[in-house]
Amino acid sequence: MAGAFTIQARDPSSLARAGVLHTPHGDIRTPAFVPLATKATVKGLLPEEVSALGYDMVLGNTFHLHLRPGEELIERMGGLHRFMGWSGPIITDSGGFQVFSMGHGTVADEIKGRAPHGSKGGASSGSEGRSSIGSEARSGAILAIEEGGVSFRSYVDGRVRTLSPERSMAIQAALGSDIALVFDECTPFHVERSYTEASTERTHRWLTRCLEWHFEHGPAGQLVYGIVQGGVYEDLRRASARVVAGSRCDGIAIGGSLGDSKAQMYEVVEWAMRELGGAHESRPRHLLGIGEVDDLIRGVELGVDTFDCAMPTRLGRHGCALVPDPANRWRVDLVKGRWREAPEPLQEDCPCPACSRGFSRAYLSYLARAGELTGARLLTLHNLTFIARLMAELREAILDDRLPEVAAAWRDPEKPLPP
Amino acid sequence: MAGAFTIQARDPSSLARAGVLHTPHGDIRTPAFVPLATKATVKGLLPEEVSALGYDMVLGNTFHLHLRPGEELIERMGGLHRFMGWSGPIITDSGGFQVFSMGHGTVADEIKGRAPHGSKGGASSGSEGRSSIGSEARSGAILAIEEGGVSFRSYVDGRVRTLSPERSMAIQAALGSDIALVFDECTPFHVERSYTEASTERTHRWLTRCLEWHFEHGPAGQLVYGIVQGGVYEDLRRASARVVAGSRCDGIAIGGSLGDSKAQMYEVVEWAMRELGGAHESRPRHLLGIGEVDDLIRGVELGVDTFDCAMPTRLGRHGCALVPDPANRWRVDLVKGRWREAPEPLQEDCPCPACSRGFSRAYLSYLARAGELTGARLLTLHNLTFIARLMAELREAILDDRLPEVAAAWRDPEKPLPP
Fold this sequence. Notes:
Two copies of one chain form a homodimer.
Chain A: E1 5-10, E2 17-23, E3 26-30, E4 32-34, H1 47-52, E5 58-61, H2 62-67, H3 71-76, H4 80-84, E6 90-93, H5 96-104, H6 107-111, H7 135-139, E7 141-145, E8 150-153, E9 160-163, H8 165-175, E10 179-181, H9 193-217, E11 223-228, H10 234-245, E12 251-254, H11 262-275, E13 285-287, H12 293-301, E14 306-308, H13 311-317, E15 320-322, E16 331-333, H14 353-356, H15 361-370, H16 373-399, H17 403-411
Parallel strand pairs in A: 4-14, 5-6, 6-10, 10-11, 11-12, 12-13, 13-14
Antiparallel strand pairs in A: 1-2, 2-3, 7-8, 8-9, 15-16
Helix pairs in contact in A: 8-9, 9-10, 10-11, 12-16, 13-16, 15-16, 16-17
């Protein structure tokens, strides 16, 4: 579908652009972060709350929704939008990441560049997004990876299930998402170059099959994004970007292993972006599973239009809040003892329910330690507010031709923004 | 404190009355249900949401808040109201029920009339209120019950703690609650009459000590409720009611074992209420840990002014919703298969977020089965809405002199209310 994306402004100092992405259920102002509604809800929030935070789109997951409650049920209930009460755009991930995470064990850690089977933990529970794989998916078992597709055992009922390019597209059609992602093999970090190469080529063949299925059977108006793989190898990444760009997909996602450091991740993303035509490619681009503050800023500078990540919501459920503190990765861990008696709010000028109602860090710390739902909810609302403000400011900055100053101010809040 | 309670109307056909209870943090319109904020939050809800549902007061718990985060911390943070962001009245339970639940093992089941160690379960997790004891408290261990007080091991950190009449009142003073309950021994159902008698007498001695401590050290304006014990023995109940009524307490709570059937529970409550002067006693009365729909209606008819119970909130977290269906105890268990494909909302005319936004039973059932926080929250909001509407209608009915018709309509929604 041509014309799904309108670029409104470009930043002359980088590859960044601001635009509007048009979908059957409305527009997404970009650059934008997309909160996860993996299992048909942003955990703990009502749709109207997500919308009020400034988010235009949420991300549902084909793998999880296929296993429970099943796309047939959701279709009978009028589709995913109606089922979950979200009237705005929905992007669905294809299930590739989740399926291959079962096969590769700790693929999520590997994608993040951590040593296989040696992850140091951090906020890890839940089963959201590409930024890590939850224990639920890990407790399933992959049975076979073949050219036709992948079979595995369901973590819900133990039954054998199959996902394939056609099956994934059919599920996403039944869900009725506005944007479907093609079914890809998500190559982990620790495998050989030869595996990455063969895997990337299979992903390209699957891209073709996904698009063929979509053009024959897909719902009218649904956009399909191809996925660039290729691991950390420049030639493979660039080749993959060319293949995806040469396909009839409506948008382009960057997936797979992005390296073992932020520097490498930015390099890998930039290879793909340069290959995709820099700031001038007219199709929207999505960076899968990336959502730390510095990564979002750099991603925008590299020309990414949308991002999704479990981080802000998952951190919240584990007692961590986002704050303007780059030295601590913009995070404060409220479970730690030093906040037990802190009367101050999370962030002085924050409009979220936790901060604007004057809840103290001491109270939020207590709720997190006591495992109270209200704590998970308040921190989720705060973290999503933090990320929404970041993205809105980056977008405004591009439109106002002042991205470098705004990005610098977010990277170092100690330095005040020039007037 | 005289004049804390204003009776506005009495129902001529029963002991029911409607009134306004005055506290330092505002008025409570009665009869009223009091949602549990056991651990300084109504689980999953913000204070403004609880208030918007029509609730004037919440109940905090001395035992749990003493163990974590500790009343000293809460006091330093400006008291419980400020700590949890609730500006309305708060009643605090004394901790007696929780402490003795540890000692008596399954006292909660026994109080409900179920056989010791033979409870059939139902929604049981959590640690709210007097209506059952949570696994957390059970995992602690009572070390000694003496005239001076009770020592036990904390479920939070394993340290030995002591509660006594004076200590409980001091904690409730530090919390700054509007209404404090005296520290009582909560006698279980299966013990001998002689134990119940001795225990009730100790509760009376502790009542005196609580009031003495309060009059010397208690915060200005804090109301203190005595607790009527006496098990299921008419003479002991009536004697206990006389002792409590003869004390300088501001209000009267009914606690302890109320029998092994609803009929017996109503009988036990009526003994106490008759002894307390029927509809004409000028002090407010609270029924501890009771909150099923028929029990609330009957309790109002017996002259109870306020109730607290974990039921509506806990049921919600376990996938059960309250609906106008007396044949099924006003409950629908959404986890059951028959609701998996049900497109209808929980209740047609309900203004709660779950019903008014059109979420289907199928969606709520799915969320409950998937263990999603949003499901717990939606059902909590629905159930509290259901109970708030019940209590508001009973109150209006008393004021309008039509309680019998309104009560009959709630008891049997098939029979339409006469005009």
